[in-house]
């Protein structure tokens, strides 16, 4: 059967686009040196580093903050004694992971500028050394933005120690959040006390995070296919 060049081009474009529309997994392993994060594995306010096509920005919320103020670190789970100092990190992860310290936030977005959706991640509480931590240690909040608009928000409840140790737990986004296209997301915490009152005013809203999985907006490959089918070139506008 004869197949027109138009149909062949359409099929190729759709297949290529589907292949490109793979989930991005941020593991914090094997991070390339970045001139925008000169002191890695220590992370300062205003630094930026990259993995899996995403930019990652640690951010301080303190009044009077200065660029480079320590807000986090990439920890080696196989060597907690050397890479997790003055805090208590989770012990059930033998890879590298990021720790957000002193009420700091963690932003991420797509280097292409295109929108994406959130899927899942792993997280744990990070305690100040010597603190007594309640069963509910942290409310980890995730905000999703499109432009300047907050379009999705979800709280995740992070437990305290079990048998004296902190451990990563796995979290999935709700269908509502996971179904929303965003162009940047921010993770931040509220540390909880024994009365289950949770606050960001104590420098103890600290968390470890790993295996953040995002997916590209699902309509992107359809747009490419339609453009080819129409024998025209239409570049999709980037999200602002």
Describe the structure.
The chain is built from four helices and 16 strands. The protein has about 240 residues and is mainly β. The protein folds into two domains: about 1-20 and about 220-240, no CATH class; about 25-215, Protein of unknown function DUF4465 (Jelly Rolls), CATH 2.60.120.1350. The strands form three sheets. Strands 1, 2, 5, 7, 9, 13 and 16 form a seven-stranded antiparallel beta sheet that branches. Strands 3, 4, 8, 11, 12, 14 and 15 form a seven-stranded antiparallel beta sheet that branches. The longest helix has 16 residues, at about 5-20. The radius of gyration is 20 Å and the shape is globular. About 35% of the residues are buried. The model is unreliable at about 1-20 and about 220-240 (pLDDT under 50).
Please describe the topology of this protein:
Elements: H1 5-20, E1 24-26, E2 42-44, E3 49-51, E4 54-59, E5 70-76, H2 80-83, E6 87-88, E7 96-100, E8 105-110, E9 116-125, E10 127-128, E11 136-146, E12 149-159, E13 169-172, H3 175-178, E14 184-192, E15 198-199, E16 207-216, H4 220-229
Helix pairs in contact: 1-4
Low-confidence stretches: 1-20, 220-240
User: What radius of gyration results from the CA coordinates?
Assistant: 20 Å
Assess the beta-strand content as a share of residues. 35-45%
The CATH C-level class name of the largest domain: Mainly Beta
CATH superfamily caption of the largest domain:
Protein of unknown function DUF4465
The total count of strands amounts to 16
Query: How many helical elements?
Result: 4
Shape: globular
**Structural class designation:** mainly beta
Overall mean pLDDT:
85
Main sheet? 7 strands, antiparallel
Provide the succession of SSEs. HEEEEEHEEEEEEEEHEEEH
CATH topology term of the largest domain: Jelly Rolls
Second rung of CATH, namely the architecture of the largest domain: Sandwich
Q: Name the helicity range.
A: 10-25%
Distance between the termini: 45 Å
Q: Domains counted in the coordinates: how many?
A: 2
């Amino acid at each position: 059967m004869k197949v027109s060049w138009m149909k062949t081009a359409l099929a190729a474009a759709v297949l290529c686009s589907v292949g490109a529309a793979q989930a991005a997994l941020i593991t914090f392993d094997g991070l390339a040196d970045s001139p925008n994060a000169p002191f890695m594995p220590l992370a300062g306010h205003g630094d930026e580093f990259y993995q899996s096509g995403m930019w990652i920005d640690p951010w301080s919320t303190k009044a009077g903050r200065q660029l480079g103020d320590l807000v986090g670190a990439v920890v080696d789970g196989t060597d907690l004694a050397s890479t997790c100092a003055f805090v208590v990190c989770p012990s059930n992860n033998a890879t590298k992971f990021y720790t957000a310290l002193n009420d700091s936030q963690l932003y991420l977005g797509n280097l292409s500028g295109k929108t994406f959706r959130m899927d899942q991640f792993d997280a744990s509480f990070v305690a100040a050394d010597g603190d007594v931590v309640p069963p509910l240690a942290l409310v980890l909040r995730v905000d999703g933005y499109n432009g300047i608009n907050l379009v999705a928000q979800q709280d995740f409840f992070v437990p305290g120690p079990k048998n004296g140790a902190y451990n990563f737990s796995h979290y999935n986004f709700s269908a509502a959040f996971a179904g929303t296209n965003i162009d940047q997301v921010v993770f931040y915490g509220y540390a909880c006390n024994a009365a289950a009152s949770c606050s960001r005013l104590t420098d103890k809203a600290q968390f470890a995070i790993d295996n953040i999985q995002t997916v590209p907006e699902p309509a992107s490959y359809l747009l490419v296919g339609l453009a080819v089918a129409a024998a025209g070139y239409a570049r999709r506008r980037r999200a602002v």
